[in-house]
Amino acid sequence: MKHNKSMVILLVVMVLALSVTITGCWGGDAITIGSKDFSENITLGEMFAQLVEAHTDLKVNRKLNMGGTFVCFEAIKNGDIDIYPEYTGTGLTAQLKMDVISDPDEAYQVVAAEFDRQFGVKWLEPLGLNNTYTLAVTDAVYQKYQVETYSDLVKVSQNLVFGAEHEFFDRQDGYDGLVKMYGLKFKGEPKKMNASLKYQAIGNGDIDVTDAFATDGPIKQYNLKVLEDDKGFFPPYYAAPIIRKDTLEDHPELEEVLNQLAGLVDDPTMTELNYQVDVEGKDVEVVVREFLQSKGLLD
Amino acid sequence: MGLIEFISANYIDIQKSLLRHIELVGISVSIGMVISIPLGIFLSRHKRMAGTVLAVAGTIQTIPGLVMLGFALILFGIGMLPALVVLSLYAILPILSNTYTGITEVEQRYIEAGRGIGMTNMQILYEVELPLALPSIISGIRISTVYIVSWATLAGLIGAGGLGDLIWTGLSNYNSKYILAGAIPSAILAFVLSGLIGFLQRLLTPRGLKGVRV
Amino acid sequence: MSSNLAPLIFEHMLIVIIATFFSVALGVVLGVIAYWVRHVDAIILWTAEAIQTIPSLALLAMLMIFFGLGNTTIIVGLILYALLPIVRNTYTGLTGIPNHLKDAARGMGMSKLQRLIRVELPLSFPLIFSGIKIAVVNSLSIAVMGVLIGAGGLGYPIYRGVQTRNLARILSGAVPVVLMALVFDYFMSKIEQRLIKRAG
């Protein structure tokens, strides 16, 4: 009848789509590397990816900029990703929900042992950086109130607006715990926004205080003052690649390849890389490639 | 803890987010109305321009929300302002299109009847065309409102607040309770507002047009 | 950066095509059920409309709880959002068929199913196709949000661009999406017009 030809065409297209769906898995030896949704983690993820591509036969599927800590954590637990960059402090308080351990090496040992035992995830060698959470205030605030420590902040907190990424508000080592330990009371409601936007916000004066990572590039750019955690609320945060144990069993060469980075990415290095990505706006792929080449890890 | 306990524990946060969400929706739909209704009336008098203007507004509609938020973020920074700019822009098309269609579809005989009894053009507009177009206009406002409730959830990304904040926190932390605490109220809000405005629409439909589906 | 765009465009289109396939299958079936079983037509149509009312981020986030991160979730979401145009147009198309044509088919000895496949669906095809067109164009835009729940596609450069306030990155994802939407809309409208003309 009238529309038979069109209907047949539609049917063919649909069958094609269905067959593509079924053959969806384009196998081959591949691993997936993920990362959280802020520049430093994306940079580290890209670093792992380029190293693996250069030194093994494996194909790397990148799932960078996935989301917050727990998104990546769920993904590695259920095998959606094989590797991502994690921090010991985060692992300790957020995933393991344990109390803060101030000694960085002890924290690493504990976290590595527990992740292995509970989740089947192995921590590779620390990269060298200790990217702790800090609180940062604008230079204007510093000049006005002469605050040096978090405790100093308590007295003037009601005049200041606090802002942070959404994740910070639902973590053990996050907003609620911080405010409780120090007795901080900020002005109005804390502002929540995407992790990458914090610094524009503080730069514009939309917020006065933010949780910063010690190696963030914009700290320098916006001339922010980093305060001292005098009561030791935030744990130390060694960064390292974490990898599924089954993936490691299938591809043991990954351990050696990624451990080439051990100790290579210290605080000043990471800050510099972050600066190039966040402040100079360079592409992550380019920044990572240049860095790895400079260290002789890439041709 | 279960979802119920979670909600009672975080009740204040949820309430604040809800109020902020309503604020975002209310302001942007109002701005949309203020722009679209006069513009729609204008276009009904200048039909040749209508095609172009509606096409432009329509194209804005096809731009994904994340993209528009990105543009607004670059221009205005974070907070409520960029969100309101984007939401107001999105509110325009449904109201504009329905205002224009509503007025231009008023049957000629009513206009002629008005002219016949000596009404001026202004009087015809206010006493014949607008009342008859009202169901259509309100339908446009309803469609617009539902869209805006939806898009306003994205606004949490750029620090505007609203129920999106809860959803974003939930997504960041893979925490289904946060997600539901934001998602369910936003869905309920959309339904409630849609129902209320729909009720208003039926209320304001002139008796003679009651059978007409808008 | 632009060298990475092609696979993303492909992935984006693939997600939309797969979702459209399933939503056509599901939507047409639901439309037929609404047509055959008169009691449930209001429920089916109301449900499809209700799904549309749910804010998209809310729906996607809730789906993520069940389907996890990744392409599956966005595809399910797209299917749900595509239901209304397809179901409604199928239903409207089928119920709009003049009775004399249905009687003629019955007179020729066709069963209900035969009548559906050989007469009613072909006659409704222009309208159904119009619904598919609306679904496809909307899906291209909604699929951008997939990046927020771990899916691929053009949402990735857009989201990265928003995070870094980089207009070029945002556009590198946005322009293909809008272009695809305009192109699909244009060509599918042309096809739709030809289908209507042939029916007339």
How many strand segments of chain C? Answer: 0
User: What average pLDDT do the residues of chain B reach?
Assistant: 88
Query: SSE order of chain B, as H and E?
Result: HHHHHHHHH
| Oligomeric state | heterotrimer
| Strand fraction of chain B | under 5%
Order of helices and strands of chain C: HHHHHHHH
Shape, per Cα inertia axes of chain B: elongated
C-alpha-based Rg of chain B, rounded: 20 Å
Proportion in β-strands of chain C: under 5%
* Helix fraction of chain C by DSSP (H/I, runs of at least 4): over 70%
Q: Briefly note the structural class of the backbone of chain C.
A: mainly alpha
The termini of chain C sit apart by: 49 Å
Structural class of chain B: mainly alpha
Largest interface: B-C, 37 and 34 residues
Distance between the termini of chain B: 46 Å
Largest sheet of chain B: none
Query: Runs of chain C with pLDDT <50, length 5+?
Result: none
Per DSSP E runs of 2 or more residues, the count of β-strands of chain B stands at 0
Short description:
The complex is a heterotrimer of chains A (299), B (214) and C (200). With 299 residues, chain A is of the alpha/beta class.
Sum up the structure in keywords.
heterotrimer, B: 214 residues, mainly alpha, 9 helices, 81% helix, elongated, C: 200 residues, 82% helix
Q: What does this 3D model show about the protein?
A:
The complex is a heterotrimer of chains A (299), B (214) and C (200). With 299 residues, chain A is α/β, with parallel strands linked by helices. Chain A is 46% helix and 16% strand. In chain A, helix 2 (39-55) packs across helix 14 (284-294). Chain A starts with a helix and ends in a 5-residue tail after the last helix. By secondary structure, chain B is mainly α. Helix content of chain B is 81%, strand content 0%. By secondary structure, chain C is mainly α. The B-C interface holds B 59, 62-67, 69-71, 73-74, 146, 149-154, 157-158, 163-164, 167, 170-171, 176, 179-180, 182-184, 186-187, 190-191, 194 and C 50, 52-59, 61-62, 64-65, 137, 141-142, 144-145, 148-149, 155, 158-159, 161-162, 165, 167, 170, 173-174, 177-178, 181-182.
Describe the secondary-structure layout.
The complex is a heterotrimer of chains A (299), B (214) and C (200).
Chain A: H1 4-22, E1 30-36, H2 39-55, E2 59-67, H3 69-77, E3 83-87, H4 88-95, H5 104-119, E4 121-123, E5 133-137, H6 139-145, H7 150-156, E6 162-165, H8 175-182, E7 191-193, H9 198-204, E8 209-213, H10 218-221, E9 225-226, E10 239-244, H11 245-250, H12 253-259, H13 267-278, H14 284-294
Chain B: H1 3-9, H2 11-45, H3 47-62, H4 65-76, H5 80-104, H6 108-116, H7 121-152, H8 164-172, H9 176-204
Helix pairs in contact in B: 2-5, 2-7, 2-9, 3-5, 4-5, 5-7, 6-7, 7-9, 8-9
Chain C: H1 5-36, H2 41-53, H3 56-67, H4 71-95, H5 99-107, H6 112-142, H7 155-163, H8 167-199
Helix pairs in contact in C: 1-2, 1-4, 1-6, 2-4, 3-4, 4-6, 5-6, 6-8, 7-8
